[in-house]
Design goal:
Oligomer: single chain
Shape: elongated
Strand order of the largest sheet: 5-4-1-6-9-8-10
Protein name: Sugar phosphate nucleotidyltransferase
Pfam family, one: GMPPB_C
Number of helices: 7
Family: Belongs to the transferase hexapeptide repeat family.
Organism: Streptomyces maoxianensis
Length: about 375
C-alpha cells in the first residue's frame, strides 16, 4: 500500500534571503513576495504544500520580515496554520531551520518538510514524503537532473537512491560524475533538526548535509525531473511567472485560466494591445493602444504607453514606460519612469524611482 503524506505533516519555508541578485525587484519587497502570475510567489508554494496535505507551516523570515504576516495572516484563508519566526541576524539555511524548531509540533521520528522560498517546481511532495518514510532515511532530498551541472553542487546516489557524496561545483569534465543536483526541498526526521548547531549561521548544503553523511546518517535522494526553476535572477523570475500563466509550471494558486496572458480584473488593457507568452498585467495597471508585450510581467499600477514593445521583462509596481519605448530582457524598478523612444536590451536594470528622459538610451547591457 502506498503511504501518502498525512494531513499532519508540517513544513518549514525558508523565506529570509535578501534576493540580492533580483534587485531592484527586491528593494521594497522580499523575494518570496514579488508577484509571479499575479500573486506573491510564496502563494504558489503555500498552495502546493496545502494540496499535498500540509496544514502547519512555519515561515523562517529575516529580510523585510514585517511584510509577510500582514498579507498571509494566520493562514486560515489558505486552509493553513501559519507561524512566523524572524532571525535577528541572518543564520543561513541550516541556522534558519534550527531557529524555528521550537515551533514544530512533530514527534522525534516524524517527517518535517523544508522548502527554499525561491524554487518553482512541479515536485510530487507526497512522493518525497513517501520515499522518506519507506527508506527509513534521516534526511531525504529532492534531486533534479540538469543538462549542465557545472553551476551546481552535485549529489551522486547509489542504486538504491542513497546519497553517497556532496560535491562542490565541478571545475573539470572529469569532476562531473552525475547530472543530479540538490533541488532545494527536503524531508528531515524531526530529531535531526535538533542536531543542527543553534545561534550561529549554518549552511545546510555546505555543513549540515556533509557532516550528517560523514557521521553515517542515512540521506536519501529522490530524483523528480518535472518542472524546476531557481528564481534567483530577474530573467528566471520573469520566465517562471510566464510558465505559471501558460501552465508549463503547475500551481493551484494562479488567479485565472492558463493561457497566453493573465490580466487581473482591475487592469485596463487597450483592445488592440497584443499580450502573449504568459504575460501578466497586474492590478490597476494600464496598457495603452498599440502595445506589444510578450513573456513579461507588468506589476500593479504600472503604465505602458502607446506603441511600446516589451519582451521578457519585468515592469515594477507604479512604473511608467513611455510611448514607443522598446524593452527586451530588462527589469524596471518600482516607480521608475522610462521616457518615450528609449531602447533597453538584455541585462539592463533601471532602479526604483529613477527617471530616464525621452530618447536618452538606445541600448544598455550588463553583459
Amino acid at each position: 500500500m502506498q503511504v501518502r503524506a498525512s494531513a499532519t505533516t508540517e513544513a518549514i519555508l525558508l523565506v529570509g534571503g535578501k534576493g540580492t541578485r533580483l534587485r531592484p525587484l527586491t528593494v521594497n519587497t522580499p523575494k518570496p513576495m514579488v508577484p509571479a502570475a499575479g500573486v506573491p510567489f510564496l502563494t504558489h508554494q503555500l498552495a502546493r504544500a496545502r494540496a499535498a496535505g500540509v496544514e502547519h507551516i512555519v515561515l523562517a523570515t529575516s529580510y523585510l520580515a514585517e511584510v509577510f504576516e500582514p498579507y498571509f495572516g494566520d493562514g486560515s484563508a489558505f486552509g493553513l496554520h501559519l507561524e512566523y519566526v524572524t532571525e535577528e541576524e541572518p543564520l543561513g539555511t541550516g541556522g534558519a531551520i534550527r531557529n524555528v524548531a521550537s515551533r514544530l509540533r512533530s514527534g522525534p521520528e516524524d517527517p518535517v518538510l523544508i522548502f527554499n522560498g525561491d524554487i518553482l517546481t512541479g515536485l510530487d511532495i507526497e512522493a518525497l514524503v513517501t520515499t522518506h518514510r519507506s527508506s527509513g532515511a534521516d534526511v531525504s532530498l529532492h534531486l533534479t537532473k540538469v543538462e549542465d551541472p557545472r553551476a551546481f553542487g552535485l549529489v551522486p546516489t547509489d542504486q538504491s537512491g542513497r546519497v553517497t557524496a556532496f560535491l562542490e561545483k565541478p571545475q573539470t569534465p572529469e569532476e562531473i560524475v552525475t547530472d543530479q543536483i540538490n533541488a532545494g526541498a527536503y524531508v528531515f526526521r524531526r530529531s535531526v533538526i535538533d542536531t543542527i548547531p543553534a545561534g550561529r549561521p549554518v549552511s545546510v548544503e555546505r555543513e549540515t548535509f556533509p557532516d550528517l553523511l560523514s557521521s553515517g546518517a542515512h540521506l536519501q535522494g529522490m530524483v523528480d525531473s518535472t518542472y524546476w526553476l531557481d528564481l534567483g535572477t530577474p530573467q528566471a523570475f520573469v520566465r517562471g511567472s510566464a510558465d505559471l500563466v501558460t501552465g508549463r509550471a503547475p500551481s493551484p494558486a494562479v488567479p485565472g485560466r492558463r493561457g497566453e496572458r493573465l490580466v487581473l480584473p482591475s487592469a485596463s488593457v487597450a483592445p488592440d494591445a497584443k499580450l502573449t507568452g504568459g504575460t501578466v498585467i497586474g492590478a490597476n495597471a494600464v496598457i495603452a493602444e498599440g502595445t506589444r508585450i510578450a513573456g513579461s510581467a507588468v506589476l500593479d499600477g504600472a503604465i505602458v504607453e502607446e506603441g511600446a514593445v516589451i519582451s521578457s521583462s519585468l515592469i515594477g509596481a507604479g512604473a511608467r514606460i513611455g510611448a514607443r519605448t522598446v524593452l527586451s530582457g530588462v527589469v524596471i524598478g518600482d516607480g521608475a519612469v522610462v521616457g518615450e523612444d528609449n531602447e533597453l536590451r538584455e541585462g539592463a536594470r533601471v532602479w526604483c524611482d529613477a527617471v530616464l528622459p525621452r530618447a536618452s538610451v538606445r541600448f544598455s547591457s550588463d553583459q
